[in-house]
Write a structure and sequence with these properties.
Blueprint: H1 2-19, E1 27-32, E2 38-46, E3 51-60, E4 73-80, E5 109-115, E6 120-126, E7 132-135, H2 143-157, H3 165-173, H4 175-199, E8 206-209, E9 215-219, E10 221-223, E11 226-234, E12 241-249, E13 258-266, H5 279-303, H6 310-339, H7 344-370, H8 381-405, H9 412-431, H10 433-449, H11 453-487, H12 495-514, H13 530-542, E14 549-553, E15 560-564
Antiparallel strand pairs: 1-13, 2-12, 3-11, 3-13, 4-5, 4-12, 5-6, 6-9, 7-8, 7-11, 10-11, 14-15
Helix pairs in contact: 1-7, 1-8, 5-6, 5-12, 6-7, 7-8, 7-10, 8-9, 10-11, 11-12
Keywords: Membrane, Signal, Transmembrane, Transmembrane helix
Membrane topology: Multi-pass membrane protein
GO cellular component, one term: membrane
Length: about 575
């Protein structure tokens, strides 16, 4: 338990550190010295009339080291109906997606190529498009302005030979003539400034229908050595789907580029993706179901309070913690959907309850697997080692989950912690199976060596059922549900969370039913005192006490019941 206490303290400390940098669904990402070939900025499911705002605040490149004509830099926006791997990302990394000229699959693609020489962004729309792009096009200097700029320069360079030099000298010595000359110079300077202002007029944003305009040229601004541009896109009725925005730096062997951008993705109903919109209602409904199941469990414990063990109350605490975690999860999604970012207080409560729920789940499953409090009150050395491994790993898994939730998808540590979470979760799921396997093996040996074969076979049957339940729960929530999520359409991917919560509820109910504190439970009515069992067998075989009943203690030593010696 000391290990669990230290783990919870460490997790709480890390939680406070992470919440300081908690990100919102209105994304803000900064990349420095990146060497990745492609950076996954975000994946979002858009309904019709959803909007995507991309603002490249600053982009600094090593202009002298890389030929950006051969190794372009820019963005790609792809659309898919499912959450599978996009076709062009499955190609060899030697081929940069920004160099594609034709569609290699049925998935539409929009490319934004940054050209630092001409200060422009070349947009190429590949495939069927029904989106509206609003951006600032590249401005060109009008021909009339070029002529007016060249004519004064030619007039100044042409000498005036029609006038004698004496007149020029006299006019130069005339003070009035000097004043007129100064006034003319001031007017010429002002006119030049006006011409420069007219040469760089402010270009207003223009709307482009990508279904009709397959190639566009947008303006790219350069301020203090950094490039910036922005665009706004409205999803059409025929363009609903799962959009993936990526930043590509084709020459990834030359580090040194820095990028800072802001993303805002909005659906007609809020800031959540299409698959996340129903989650707030789903979590609050499932919280009510878990809370009802927890109340029924507590009622059962109170009804059979004389045959209740400590682990039964631990199971009740797990059910209530699960319900509370779902409530805070629902509230967190509600504020993200309405405001675009989570409220810090509710997010903290959700992370704390999620951490407690995960720790309680694996501790409870491992204790049930060892048979603690049911048939024994002392854990063996092997079982203690399992807890010393599972508890810290479960704390690490919850810390990884919190980091993933509070980190932008495009950051390099996001995928690192995602892999850590997946690996640690599988290790924990495998570790809790060992106590169950050990208990099954022990009961198999005991049923063949002592005289309690019938009792041990009942326990053996129960542990086998429990082992199958755990394996099915892990297999369904970690493998089958994920496969369903990958193959489902983007607007139905919330069914993954629904299946996980329903399977968790079924697992909790079956575990509670198998280990219920009732007198007719074959597992809980087994006696602990071996001498009593042997004496009962001897007296029964001799027939000396035939028809006589005796009072004896149950396994917990608190309830007395009459049993026939037959």
């Amino acid at each position: 338990m000391a290990v669990a206490h230290r783990g919870c303290v460490l997790a709480g400390y890390l939680l406070l550190l992470l919440l300081a940098g908690c990100k919102a669904r209105i994304h803000s990402l900064t990349l420095k010295n990146e060497t990745r070939f492609a950076v996954d900025l975000n994946t979002f499911g858009f309904y019709a009339n959803g909007t995507l705002d991309v603002n490249l605040v600053s982009l600094r490149l090593q202009e002298q080291l890389v030929n950006y004509s051969n190794y372009p830099v820019g963005f790609s926006l792809s659309r898919s109906r499912v959450n599978g791997v996009l076709s062009y990302t499955a190609e060899e990394t030697e081929t940069c997606p920004l160099t594609l000229t034709k569609l290699t699959s049925t998935e539409p693609l929009i490319l934004f190529l940054i050209d630092i020489k001409t200060l422009s962004v070349n947009v190429r729309a590949i495939g069927e498009q029904d989106n509206l792009l609003r951006a600032k096009p590249k401005a060109e200097a009008p021909k009339g302005l070029r002529k007016t700029r060249q004519e004064p320069a030619n007039a100044a360079n042409t000498p005036d030979v029609s006038k004698p030099s004496t007149n020029r000298d006299e006019k130069a010595d005339d003070p009035d003539n000097k004043l007129n000359k100064d006034e003319k110079d001031d007017k010429s300077v002002e006119s030049n400034k006006d011409i420069q202002k007219e040469e760089k007029p402010e270009v207003e944003e223009t709307e482009f229908q990508l279904g009709k305009n397959k190639q566009l040229t947008l303006a790219l601004d350069k301020v203090n050595g950094s490039y910036n541009f922005s665009f706004h896109m409205v999803v059409g009725l025929l363009a609903e789907g799962l959009y993936s925005l990526k930043f590509h730096y084709c020459q990834n062997r030359v580090p040194g580029h820095a990028c800072m951008l802001r993303l805002t993705e909005v659906n007609p109903d809020g800031y959540l993706s299409a698959a996340e919109i129903p989650l707030s209602r789903l979590y609050i409904c499932m919280a009510g179901v878990f809370f009802t199941a927890a109340l029924v469990w507590v009622y059962t414990l109170m009804k059979h309070r004389y045959s209740v063990f400590k682990i039964h109350w631990l199971m009740a605490a797990l059910a209530f913690t699960k319900a509370t975690s779902l409530v805070f999860h629902s509230i967190n999604y509600h504020f993200i959907n309405t405001k675009g970012h989570p409220i810090e207080g509710w997010a903290v409560m959700y992370y704390i309850t999620h951490l407690l729920k995960g720790a309680l789940l694996f501790i409870t499953l491992a204790l049930i697997g060892t048979g603690w409090a049911f048939v024994k009150y002392i854990l063996s050395d092997k079982e203690k080692k399992i807890f010393m491994i599972v508890i810290p790993l479960q704390v690490l898994a919850n810390v990884a989950f919190i980091i993933i939730e509070s980190t932008e998808e495009g950051s390099s540590e996001y995928y690192l912690w995602k892999e850590i979470l997946f690996l640690v979760d599988l290790i924990c799921c495998g570790a809790i199976l060992f106590p169950v396997v050990w208990s099954i093996r022990h009961l198999q040996e005991a049923s063949s060596t002592d005289g309690k074969a019938a009792m041990n076979l009942e326990k053996l049957k129960l542990f086998r059922h429990y082992y199958v339940m755990i394996v099915c729960y892990i297999y369904f929530t970690r493998i089958i549900a994920i496969l369903l999520k990958v193959t489902m359409p983007f607007q139905w991917q919330w069914c993954y969370e629904f299946l996980v919560e329903v399977s968790t509820l079924i697992f909790f109910v079956l575990t509670g039913y198998k280990f219920r504190p009732a007198s007719n439970n074959p597992y809980l009515q087994l006696p602990q005192d071996e001498e009593d069992v042997e004496m009962d067998e001897v007296m029964t075989e001799s027939g000396a006490l035939e028809g006589i009943s005796k009072v004896k203690k149950t396994c917990n030593g608190r309830e007395r019941q009459k049993e026939s010696t037959l």
